[in-house]
Amino acid sequence: MAKRPIILHPDPRLKKVCDPVSDLSDDLRRLADDMLETMYDAPGIGLAAPQVGVMSRLIVLDCEKNEDADPRPTVMFNPEVKAASDERNIYEEGCLSIPDQYADVERPSEVTVTWLDRDGRLQEDTFDGLWATCVQHEIDHLNGKLFIDYLGPMKRQMITRKMQKLKREKARA
Ligand SMILES: [Zn+2]
Q1: Is residue 4 part of a domain?
Q2: 96 CA to centre of ligand 1 in angstroms
Q3: Is 127 exposed, middle or buried (0-12, 13-18, 19+ CB in 10 A)?
Q4: 92 part of the active site
Q5: Which of 1, 24, 124, 139 has the most CB atoms in a 10 Å sphere around its CB?
Q6: Nearest CA to 129 among 82, 65, 76?
Q7: Structural domain span for residue 31
Q8: Number of domains present in the structure of the chain
Q9: CATH for 163
Q10: 5 located within any domain
């Protein structure tokens, strides 16, 4: 496994709709493993393939917060939200592509998702709490959508300007 550099907002690759995965190759499995390593190292609870520059419908997540519990590394190819609750939840979200910026985002509090797992088996599960928020945030990435797109234009522009400044500083360093 190897860590991959995470693309920072603003970047055109974070605004594109990603392609479905049709053939689950060893390369894609390796990519999923690399993404998990990158996510745990960051540290973060979710990562989508476009954040490492791959325009394929692949996300990884692990929202297990209890430090005594076993990790739950989850790999989802072609994840799709099949059903969402009317009840909604507000979480303060962040993003590895938008470091150190956080904002409240309202989403359905429960979602049923289907996906292909690392072995290509079709899976379906219903998520709530942080898992529900995280899986929706990551699936949004596959559709070129960021959590700041849920915010008002002023707040979004403020965050984007901060990120542009951060990227200029990083480029000079
Ligand atoms: Zn994100």
Answers
A1: no
A2: 6
A3: buried
A4: no
A5: 139
A6: 65
A7: 12-172
A8: 1
A9: 3.90.45.10
A10: no
